[in-house]
Amino acid sequence: MDQRMTPQEIVKNSTEVKESKMDWKKVYAALHASIESNKYRIMRHGNTLFWYKIDKPKVAQMYVFNADNYKNVFKNTTMFAQAMHKAGYEYVYGETHDINMINLMKRIGVELNCPVKVEDAGQDSKGRKLYRGTMYV
After folding, report:
1. Are the C-beta atoms of 130 and 124 separated by less than 8 Å?
2. What burial class does residue 60 get, using C-beta atoms within 10 Å of its C-beta: 0-12 exposed, 13-18 middle, 19+ buried?
3. Structural element, H or E, at residue 9
4. pLDDT of 2
C-alpha cells in the first residue's frame, strides 16, 4: 500500500508545484484561503487533490495537485470524474502544460464512456504550451 500523505505533503510534492518552483507554503495558504472564500471546493482521492471552482451551474474548473504515481492518479481521477457525475455536473475543465495529464483524461473518457475535448490554450507564463481539457462527465 502506498503511503497516505497529508494535504500539505501532496501540495509540496505535486508535480505542478515542483516544476513551477513556487513556494509550496504560499500555494497551500492560497488554497486554504480560497476554500474559506466558499468559491472553491477540494476533493481528495489517494495522494491527489482536486481543487475546483464552480464556474457556473453544473460546470467546474479543476486544478490537480498530484503526488501519486501514474497508475494511482488514473484511479484517483476516474473516481473524481465519477463523483462529479453523481453530483450532477455536466463537465469539468482545466488547463495544463502536461500532455500526460491530457492523455490520462482521454483514457478515462474511454473507460467511463464520456467525451473528452482537447484544445490549444496558448502558453503559460514560462512559455510552455498549454492544453485545455474538458471532460463531459
Report:
1. yes
2. buried
3. helix 7-13
4. 66
